[in-house]
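Why predict the complex rather than its parts? Because the way molecules touch one another can change local conformation, and only a joint prediction can capture that. The input here totals 1233 residues.
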Amino acid sequence: MLILMSWLREQVPGLPPARAVADALIRAGFEVEGVEAVGQGLTGVVVGEVLAIEEVAAKKKSVRWCQVRVAAPAAADPAVSDQDAGVRGVICGAFNFAVGDRIAVALPGAVLPGGFEITARKTYGHVSDGMICSASELGIGEDHDGIMVLPPGAPLGAHVAELLDLADDVLDIAITPDRGYALSIRGIAREAATAFGLSYADADGSVDSTDAGGAARAGAGGVADAGAGYPVTVEDTTACDRYVARVITGVDPAAATPLRWARRLSLSGMRPISAAVDVTNVIMLGLGQPLHAFDRAKLSGAIVVRRARAGERLLTLDGVDRTLDPEDLVIADDSGPIALAGVMGGASTEISASTTDIVLEAAHFDPIVVARGARRHRLFSEASRRFERGVDPALPPAAAQAAIRLFTELAGGRAEPGLTDVDHRRAPSAIRFPLSEPTRLGGRLYSDESVRGRLTDVGCLLEDDGADEGAVLVTPPSWRPDLTRPADLVEEVMRLEGYDTIPVTLPRLPAGRGLTPSQRHVRAVARALAYEGLTEVMTLPFVGAGTADLLGLPDNDRRRAAVRIANPIAEDAAYLRTTLLPGLFDAAARNIGRGDPDIALFEIGQVFREPREPARPVPTPSVLTRPSQDEVAALDAALPEQPRRVAGVLAGLREPATVLPGHAVAGSAGGGALAKGRPADWADAVEAAHAAARAVGVELTATADEHAPWHPGRCAALWVDGELVGHAGELHPRVIGAAGLPPRTVAFELGLEELFAAALRRGPVEAPVVSPYPPADRDVALVVEAAIPVTEVTAALREGAGELLESLTLFDVFEGAQIGAGRRSLAFGLRLRAIDRTLTAEEANGIRDAAVAEATRRTGAALRA
Amino acid sequence: MTETMTDPQPAAAGGPLDPASLEAAVAEALAALAAAADLTDLAAVRAAHVDGRSAALVLARQKLGSLPREDRADAGRRLNDALGAVRDAHATRLAELTAERDARVLVEERVDVTMPTRRRHAGARHPLAVLSERLVDTFVAMGYEVAEGPEVEHDWFNFEALNFYPDHPARSEHDTLFVEPAGTGRVLRTHTSPVQVRALLSRPLPVYVVAPGRTYRNDTVDATHSPVFGQLECLAVDEGITMADLRGTLEVFAAELFGTGLTTRLRPSYFPFTEPSAELDVQCFNCRGESARQPCRVCSDEGWIEAGGCGMVDPNVLRAAGIDATRYSGFAFGMGLERAAMMRHGVREIRDFVDGDVRFSLPFGIEG
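Output of the joint prediction:
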């Protein structure tokens, strides 16, 4: 909402400078986003009269060579003949003025808003000795018709800035949705007056000022006459609880809006259009009451306020032909709908350049009805914005009266005596308000006197509650439909007293339990992966319809149960991720595209999967009581599954190239495998998954798996306690190609819920008993079928060795002709140790043999010869 | 006297054990030891002169047995003295040469310790995650617990129970992303405030929780907008909670986020789920409110930074959770993590948070 300070000052004399007003309004809860000084620094612009015009043909456009007199003849230099006194030639590109018009001329040396300095310069074959200005060049509004033509009485040579009182300030205020009344000079004037303790005359019949500024001053019931006006029938008196119609005849359709009002409209952010339209806008800006003017000649029969009928259409003023919904509230006549109530008028009854008789509508519509209508038709107007936020239902007669006065002044109209006022307003209800309530919630003392005073400032009527001395019955003013409960009144008291008067204290909390195990675990996983050299990302969770195919997911895969957004930001990203991998692929490709080929990224976040049962609408619980557990469970059941997961992607070098020698041998730098770095491979993905799991005390077990989007021969399924937690390994080459990733990119993804559940099952770590005796180390090389996973062999060795096996290390894998095709040799180191003695060689050998025997039994392993 | 000696001394006079021979052998050995240039030389000298089989003194000892009994004691004493002198000399030289060798090797093993030493890539946490954890820890230290909720949320939690009735004008300010199928009331939560309702329904009173999380709005990604952004929500519901308690809590929070000694300001505002409502402004940590004198890029010369919205929990919210608003009261506070991080760290573009460019995150390290 743009508030023009000069307009505000008219309503509240004695206001301090704009900045101080802005600060006071901010303190009262009105977010002033800007204070703009307009019409400042305007010097050397004077009133001139056009004496002669000569067309100058130029290549692309034609301009005019104008002779303008910029000083009254008497004031001119006597040495110069009357004819030439103060006359200068100016080139001008606009055509909306004629000989004899008075215009604003910027003389050489003048400085226009924005620091633009005017000089005499040669152009189109003439020396242009100044510039004829438009309103926008003077910083006082938008251009509509080119040059600003001044009233004929403007004295020649007078400074335009002084003449038009141009120096002004505009406050740009963001109005919160609860304060519809503040979308007007009237509402802001009351707040400003309260802030500075100034008087503000609003209601009480002060609508009689014929001064157009009085448009911003009205109140309930300030209308003189009544009687039969234009016939109006309101069918839906809930949706429209008040409808006032007035008839104005004899309007001069050619009347131009005076500069003063045009300027106010422009600076308030509205384009001046025609006198009739401008009057309704001035009243709306001033009082907050949206008005609509129908061309009486185009109306047929009585006005009816009703819901639209199926199939009805309306061509609205914005030129859109709309199909109406039976819920739409419309204004209709015998011809059908002529306006979408409270939103926009129709073209069929629009004011035109030949309109002389007007039916003026000043009504009050239900906020929700207007909000729905505007949203249904995606048609948001100044009127709908106000009705949606609440317009004062007491205002229509006074606003109509104020408009009539302005019509009379600006366009010569005459009001017909009749007044239609269909009034179905409900009586306001009082709020029982304990005077101690602000103190209870504010943490400071608010005296009864200050509470009563502040509520009165707001416009409330206070009556004593006979039954309770500590409470009052508060009737909020008609323009404050937002005040319905004690809490609303508490806010009024607090904000007007000032939030800065509230002291600073801290609540006394009961002992908290800190983070839950899973909250600690998320942090542990993230930190572990970061220490592993992976960088955390938080990607957008939107994916396209083709993502599941890109990943090569089978038809029945749960990761195809994607949740779709009804109004996606982009159609090619209309689904929510079911796995974290696509976002990581994008981030990896982005990093590679920006020149970093070595990728190690991870993400922790929710994924979204539709439940197996399709979501159905669930009855919404009441908000008037606590919902039952069943109701909450039903709401939750309608939601997608949203488990948290962790995933990572690695490509390029896992260990960077280095100039460091592998060992401390001088002169060996610059060569060897270490110097070139080590590329990431499937094992790095598995190891990252292990790192994540170990961070929460869980050891994962790997088995071979074929699982999209991984390479079918290089994919590990990762398990804990017999439950599948996730997968890791090299990605499928086709996926790598489709995702634009480098060959051999690897990835992992784990379900955090499963992982954390396993961590919780673990309980406290049981400390090992550490033996002080020396170990017995035994190496064995076993030849097994190459298809047998190492884990099976290690499991057998462990089982066979028993409790005295301290650790088992695979230190060599060998395949070759000596071993035989399809077989491989696995060399293990067994470290054996007893808690209570040094093992004898015989004991150690016996354990080794038992281990090998078990491996042979289970896997057919043979000791390598 | 010599004539009376019956034993001639040809062995002593001419043999290896006579004093002259021993002296000569010792002198020769000492000279060789002194001449040994390094430990290898010294090992050879030791073999030749100290305890090798061909060493003169070793050979002399073998002759000791063949001496006449009466000469043996003297010869033995002389031999031991000689051997002692040679062994001491060897030990001394060995120590000298070892020290020389050690000094030389340490010099030779010198490396350039200023070479780059990184053998593995560095990793990093996401700056928003780190900031969120830091702020959460502040509240947890005060006794708050962390509450959580789903990102696809039901309209009832996201709006209705928070006092946004179905056609509330504030709903349109939320640019909600709706989830299909229509009519199921599922939305991507537009704020973390639905966690307030979940916490009030699932926890016994009093409730003191903080809820960080991801939220969604229908915005396209650009320098200042993102469809996904983080919020941090704080809720306290107890007997006797006042707006003053809110102010105090906000000051603790502001100090953690921007540093101590900054004043805060509450401006009356509007949120459907708080009444009274306020916007929290924190004095700009960069210019400390002195922007009138010196231009400030952090606060755009406002002197204040908008840090979040807050207020006393609306009685309708308490009612929807079955809480007696005449007995209990509460405050709630919510803030945008991106905005806070942008202020705190001078992040210029909000898209940096979702792009996943490693160069952006790495400087934040593990702890931010």
